[in-house]
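Re-running the complex after MR caught last week's input typo. The corrected sequence lines follow. Everything else is unchanged.
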Amino acid sequence: MRSCALAVALLSLISLMAGCGGGGGGTQPTAPANSVVIKSVGAATTLYGVGFKLQLPPGVTLATQGNGALAAGALVSSGGAADANFAANYDSGVSPQTVTVSLTKASGFPVGEFMTVIPVLAQGTALVPGDFVLSDFKAYDNLTTGSPAPLITGTVTAP
Amino acid sequence: MGCKMEKWIARLSLLLLLLAAVSAPEASAFVIYRTSFEEAQNWTRSRPAKGLAGYDYPAAWAAYNGGNPVYPPPRKTDNSFLFDLFRVGATLFDPPFVTNQLEIGGGFGRTTAKGMLYNVEVSGTTGTWSGGDAMHLWLGNSGYSDIYVRFYLKYPPEWTWTNDSNPIPNRGAYQKIMKVARYNGTWGDAGNPTLYTAPSNGGVVHPVWIPDWYQYISTTPSQTYFYNSERYSPDYTDNDPVQDFYSLRPGQYPNGSQFKWPSDAGWHCYEFRAKLNTPAGETNGKSEVWLDGVRVWSKNNIVWVKSVGSVAQGWNDVTILDNATIPAYPLSSHVVYPLYLDDVVVSTHYSGPPAKPTNVIAEGINASSIKLQWTAGNNGAIPQLDGYSVYYGKDQSSLTRVDVGNVTQYEVQSLEQSTQYSFYVTAFNTDSTDNYRNESLRSDLVKAVTQDSVKPDLTIAPVTTPTKSAAQTISGTVSDAGGVASVTVTVGEREPAAASIDGNIWRYSIPALTEGGNGITVTAKDLSENQAVVEGSILLDTVPPVLTVRPVVTPTIFTSQTLSGTVSDAVTGVSTVQVQVAGGEKHAAVVNGSGEWSYLLSNLQAGVAAQITVTALDTVGNESGQSSAVMAIGVLKAGDLSGDVAVGVEDAQLAMQMGAGLKQPDVGQLQRGDLAPMVGGVPHPDGVIDTGDAVLILGIVTGMTQF
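Corrected-run output:
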């Protein structure tokens, strides 16, 4: 069974809620201690979108709603992309569990932190950022090409 | 004429004849009487007032009262009488409409010379006669058994015999042209030479021949006939046959059944022959009539004098012009027709114009001469022929006359080289003491060309080529000083066909050209067989170009697209390839020399299936109707994942959902939303819709990216 989560926060243009999840927007929160942040890494530039897959370590899951969608706050745009829109597809039926995220922000955001993950830890599980596997990471720094910036990579770190 | 000597001679002759109990002598050919009026004093004879007695015999007889008549005939300049008697009836009109009956003076004759004017009052009804005798001649007791009476008359063009616009059926108009009679006694005895119709008139004038004009009308148009009135001797029995001149001589009266002549304002020569039968009772009398030298009447076997009569005296009484009855206008209209008389000859031989020459042949014999040959005409009379006249010139309406003598061939010299001339030949006599010669009618017109080695001048006007019309009229000019005989046109391998010629323009309508090249050869020949040739060609192309259109990309996210294909035309070549979008204005595509064409479509509207029509024309306008391509290009709105033909953040949202795997794009969404990556401004779809596409959609939303 798949569960999905979509966090949608409109940028400065228009607010829109759609899909099966929500998220993003608001005052920059302070990342909780049991969270990890995802950052882009590379030369300073303005990014407009990021897409990636995040493989959760064993014993780490994400909170969902009753319908299987991600619970609010499981994923939060953060850092320079605090008010970015994103869509996240959390597939809890596979092992290891993954969540696929697509995040955009028309006004752009800097290289660096753009998302915070607040997982649910199984009993006895320690949250180790290095255990998360970030793949298919693509950062987009050009609104006219839609091409990924090849020198921008992603990383999962502690808050 | 008043010639006393002649009368004494005649009386003596009669006496001798009676003693010898022989028939009338046949005088040798000579002129019995003649006048051209030039020898006459001017003279005017008014009419008696309406209802009064006329001026008549004997009071108007030259010999009356010892040569001092009450109403004297006109006199010659030597004071002798010009003729013996006249007769003037009372006028039918009231003053001031009364005219003189007779006048002699200048301007009444042929050209401007003297002649006699005879005014004819239009009586209004058939049977009401007007006028009288213009001239009455006494030829002596013995007379002449064979007599010719000749004179010239001119009828005015307004002369109308009957009222054809309001015809009264079965009515006629008459005019007595002349009378030849025999007075069976001696003028001055008890008889009246002017009365001839019945024994009750005295029984002294018989036989009588009175040729009349007779206009008979039963239906319009009325017909003019020759009315031949014969009264035989001694019992006045008569015979009045009618002859239609037109049926006798249709070639001379080209007006057909409507016999216009002689009212053509021209002078015409009338000559009448009356020959008594000899002996009495023998069927060998004769009458003949010539008009302008053409015999229009001939009657043989006439018994003028029956066996119980006598031919001891011949014709001795001649009247020229007599009264008329003309119903063309009512009496109240007071219409008077002037009629002119000149050059009167009474003779024992024919004195009028000879018959016109026949069989005229003209032939150019060198560069400046044309030889004519002809045959003397025959009008049944022995002509007094003095020679021939040749009329010639380049313009047949303005010919030069040359009198060539009594020959039947003549060489016209000093003519222009290679030039066509027209010719008439006439015969004439001048020995009748007329002031003007008696000339025959003209021969048929003949034409000939001086020797000609110059070919015609021939041109052809520019033809329409190439053309898609299979029919075409071509033309040009042609001229030749000697005359053009023919212009023929040969088209391709066809047989030559005659062109029409109007003046110096020739024309030919080609009925059906052959597809491809058509050689045109125009050949002109002159009358001397010299030939000129001009050539041209016409390219016929009725096949439209062959047009292909390469498949278009549809549907597409692009608002512009280059159409292309091939085009060719085997005959005349391609003129243009035109592209029309949605029925709008046609625009020319680019056609290169290799048969390739292209056209950049732009500003296509998203969400609209643009109808594209491609048409090719060749240089003559054949349109590739069969090959024209009609297609539709569907233009999609790039980035429009929601399908609302607009791009907004919701589309970016959908792209992110698809990029995250939350939604799967359908085919249309892939066509519209799979844009990234863009390379050089051109999308390179990668088969998925992901964050890159979402970013591009945001670029579209923000105006950063355009399609």
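None of the earlier attempt is carried over here. The domain at 36-157 of chain A is CATH 2.60.40 (Immunoglobulin-like). Chain A has no helices and ten strands.
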